[in-house]
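URGENT: need a sanity check before tomorrow's submission.

F., can you look over the Group II intron-encoded protein LtrA record below? I want to be sure the sequence and structure line up before it goes out.
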Amino acid sequence: MSTRTPSGDGVTQRPVTKPAFGDDLLERILDSDNLRRAWNRVRANKGAAGVDGMSIDEFPGWAKAGHWKRVVNELETGRYQPSPVRRVEIDKPDGSKRPLGIPTVHANYT
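Structure tokens as predicted:
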């Protein structure tokens, strides 16, 4: 495969001035607006349960019961241990299948 930079007056390359991920990445991930947007995408996509079997309808009650605060604390202190990912295959329009991993929030907090 050959790669080339296009020629012409309008071609400029963006200088790399800072790393793609800053020191505040975890803080940005755990930001309430970011989490709300992520949750809305999962709900809109009718997200499936992971290996823990928790449905999207069960998650809000689980989170409000204090389990989500424990997950955040574990993430912030480096103690979070992710659960296994549920593997499924999704049908593609051409008849083939695409592998998909469905994560869980935390299987130990049911």
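My own read: Residues 32-109 form one domain. The beta strands are 86-91, 97-102. If you see anything odd, call me.
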